[in-house]
Amino acid sequence: MATAHLIVGLQFGDEGKGLVSAYLTQKHHSRWNVRHNGGAQAAHHVVRPNGKVHCFQQFGSGSFDYASTFLGPDVIVEPFRLLDEASELLHTHHVANPLRQHFIDGRALIITPYHIALNQLKERMRGSVRHGSTGLGIGETRSFSIRHPSLALRAEDLGKSHMPSILRDIAEIMLDEARGYDSTAKIDEVLFKQHCQSYRNAAKLIHVVPDDFFGAVVLQQDDNPVFEGAQGILLDELYGFHPHNTWTNTTSGNARRMLAEAGFEGEVKTIGVMRPYITRHGAGPLPTENSYMAYLDSSDHNQTSEWAGKMRYGHFDLPLLRYAMEADDHNIDEIAMTHADQVHEQSSRVAMSYQYAGNRILNPFELLSTDERGTRNGQMLLTERLAPYQPEYVSALADTLATLPISIESYGPTTRDIVEKDDKRWQSWHATSSQTVMALASKTQPSEPTDLNTSATSSSEPGHGLQNLQWSDPSTWTPHVSSSPEVDC
Fold this sequence. Notes:
The protein has helices at residues 17-28, 79-91, 113-125, 138-147, 163-178, 189-205, 213-221, 253-261, 318-327, 376-386, 397-402, 424-444, 464-468; strands spanning 3-9, 32-35, 44-47, 53-56, 68-71, 76-77, 102-105, 109-110, 207-209, 226-228, 267-274, 278-281, 311-314, 316-317, 334-337, 349-356, 359-361, 390-395, 406-410, 418-420, 480-481. The chain is an alpha/beta fold and 489 residues long. The longest helix has 21 residues, at 424-444.
């Protein structure tokens, strides 16, 4: 039976979706990687066995295993960066003719230099109250398409005679808005002509396909397509913490709609990806933040940048996991946990709930009415209402993870470092990990808060973790309430 594998991030991005997508492509010999959201801001690092690393942005992470890439109608495309990435795949990684295996739905929005310029100008002007942005024009492009749908530049327009006219309208509208921040802003006519010619050139190199390509070609050629999501559900346009969220649907919703419209009758398996701790780039809520935990990421893949901001770290956050699961309509079937080798390297702290003024919540959705959920206004209210709440911790990371439907774990940066629950290595690696934890426990436990009056439950029964995500009786454990966002390990 055909099976569509949907990959989504359960945190604020940087969970390891590229690694999981590459692994599933190899395992199922998938011929297609389908990108269903986001765009050029994706940064999915895949480490090859020879140590070489590629940051996949607009190509599927299974490209090294000969999978073709399809950018769906909801992806926001930056053609020039796409061509740069194709060049890197060809010359650095020796992927033969990468553009020959790359296809773009004609309805996909195109980011222009004017969207990027306005995005970066606005973020600079916000100063110390930045929203958090990749600086790549994703939000401006999406926002413009909502306000001016008939003027939005799409992939199908790139090689057409009307393209310069559309680009001119975009430039003029962006200029009017930019002058509200910088009265000296203007359009460089020489650059404008160069942009038009660059788009014409790009149109000759990329493959733009009609609306029915996904159903007529992708699903006909592949019984196991891998849908590679971008960013994380906690950054979703309607469920993220506004204004510190993205302008795209980061749930599995777009992928499910594509499959339904194409009449797909096979199985749909949704895999949520997470770390055993939580991270986020730049501004925005991170309730369990602990700056000491930055030592966990020794790679240079997630460093501070001008636009994305500083990489931040926090303890494993069960309320936010419950929230992400619910935001995706409880469609998550399994969890892939990356960085499993770091479980024993960090504090065993887990945020089980949040508390403020005597009110305890297990899920941030509790702070919203039914009418407020899934709306931008509701997300602004949620950001405000959640701010005074503090995490309540127990020292039960391993026990908590054991209750979740984790079926895939990675113990290193390559696909060779992944084990599945039905793999004979699973028990071996877990036994080794447990021995390491026990050896470290005698050294680390004295420095842990004395909040271990807990009876966290674990079970190997299928689905038990999903049920435990509904934990509603906190009377079985005594929480430790943090007095500030920064806590000691």
